[in-house]
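ping. complex inputs:
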Amino acid sequence: MPDFLPAWPLEANSFLIFGLLLLAGLAGGRLAAMTRVLPAITGYIATGFILGPGVLGFVDTATLGDARLLAEFSIGLIVFDLGRRLDLGWARHDRWLLPMGLAESVLSFVAMFALLHYAGVATLEAAVAAMIGVATAPAVVLLVANELKADGPVTRRMLWHVALNNIVAAIGVTMLLPFIEASQSGSALDPIARAAWLIAGSFLLGYVAFLVMVLLGRWLGKSPVPQFVLAVGMVVATVGAAQLGRLSVLLALLVLGTCARNLDRRHRLVDVEFGRAAHLFFVALFVLTGATLAPHQFGAIAWVGLAFVVARGVGKAIALHVLAWPAHISLRQAGTLALALTPMAGLAIGMTRPIYDVAPEFGARLTAIVVSGIAILHFLGPVATRFALIRAGEGEPRARD
Amino acid sequence: MPDLAFTSSAALTLGVELELMLVNTRDFNLAPDADDLLRRTTRVAPEGELKPELTQSMIEINTSVHQAYAPLVTELRATRDVLSGHARKMNVALAGGGTHPFQKWSDRKIYPNERFLSVSEKYGFLAKQFTVFGQHVHIGCASADDAIYLTHALIRYVPHLIALAASSPFYQGVDTAFDSSRLSIVNAFPLSGTMPLVRSWREFNRYYDRMYDLGIVRSMKDFYWDVRPKPEYGTVEIRVCDTPLTVDRAAQIAGFAQALARWIWEARPIEAGADLYLTHSYNRFQACRHGFAGTVIDAVRGDARPLADDLRETLDVIAPHAQMLHAEAALDALRASIDAGNDATWLRRTMDETGTLADVVRHQADRWASS
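pong. complex structure:
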């Protein structure tokens, strides 16, 4: 065979696999859209699930590892965008906003913890799993909201709650780290320092990144294109810096976004829309997320996951309904808000990574507990958020790109 | 047959309707929060009345009926403060201005009540494009024939009112080169324009009955005229003003209209004839396009002169009437604005200083809440 021809059998490279994954995700999204009930995200996730190692095996574990970079980047953009929705001035004017957000986080934690404890899960594992469950998946809610062109009081509150419950969960999990490590090694001094470093370091990194961003923003002026590149550049650099410093990517980017919203007093930064460019990465992210799911997660242990999901939803719903009257929101808004907060993706946003770092066995046991809940919510979550935003009258069901 | 009885009201009483925009505080685009704001005001309500408008990012303030300018300002300021308080708790803001500078009309949602849905059905894309914000001033009339005369005579001063209130230089993300681009949107409606040249309420009723019988209108609300009689309130309604950037300016314009009406009724300076309408479209365009720098042509006198000069002269002529009505302060402020520039000037200057239309809206919202 002439040597200018490719070697046989052909071996797919990462580009080809990634490109095909994107196109397959696109097809899955289109099929989901045709149902008029499912959001496109559900199609992306289902495509990944079917093509992934769990079912057809078209994508192997090594490819998933390669694609991690891409996933981190997509999540980075989403979390930064979420931080920009956390208007602290709003909490000053509406004195019930923060108590309501905290109550929603605390009550869902209590409900999930109580359930796991009752089911015989060890206290610490139950606490960490419940803490992970507090967070609502930022990527899912933002994407569903964008897909429906949703805007209004419920959408705005939803994004505020998501930002807050992610911060609560990230700090909560980090604070539990010393106890996890102590349970392994018996000594907690070093882990306390580690937790302090993770939280303080992540906040500091986010703040410093913000200062740099404002300086550059001032120099660049307010043209949208340079500001877009600035935002993407700062997000990518912050993801890298957080990984380098073994800090929390999630916290650092939330802080960066929150500072951009609240501390940019001279309005040097433009609130750029990531739009279609980012959507490309989001398709990939959800196809990959689907590919990490395995069929057995829906099998024997699924009932634990299901109970976990229900407890979580009940906790959030009770908090929101009880505080609806003083917070001047209607019961209908409270109900749709609780439903909209359903998606959960604690694993995808890297919350368990520090746990694997300090205690791999503990991490594996934990994953076994929460993974079925997360697997279920990957499919239920986007549908619930879509339904809630349409029911709140804020999403346009026919709005598709 | 419809009943078009004219409810008599105390002459020269005053009321204002203001259509306001609701914007989010993140990117300052329009926010579809009218329903939520109206729901909240059932617990802490301002004076007057609040109503939804055609699309979900608009609300309308209707003041109570007033005798004079001063209590009108007081009420408008109090209403503004109550609404701003609610808006802050909702993480949105209210703003004046005749158009939102960069919203995309196709993104708007029709407010889901029967009347607005039928407007949307009838007018297609014009309904969503009608997400523009105007100030309407009502002047009380003792009799229906007084209302007909005033409706005609005010046509002479429509350019002046447009220039004083103009606050819509930006539309759909561009500088339109107009001081008031809002009225161009109104022009697209088939029943916009002016009342026909009828001389009495009886004649008006004949016209109205014919339009009704032909199936063109179902109520007075179907006429989108620049100035129209409003028989159920017993008023004449001036509809050409953009919503100004502040409640104070809104009240000043109402005070000007009130003094103007007093002068018109007492001096009968205008003849309601064909000449009045001959130049109306031209003068109106001049005011929309150039504001105070426009030219007005008076067909009766047969001359053309700068709008600013004609306005200053009008302010001088009606000054004694403003004094009788305790509205001198309103006229003084308006006179000062001829040199300082109207709200359209302020918006363009803010754009030059800040560089983005989102920043312009932010300043617009701050100005509404604080001055």
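Chain A has a mean pLDDT of 85.
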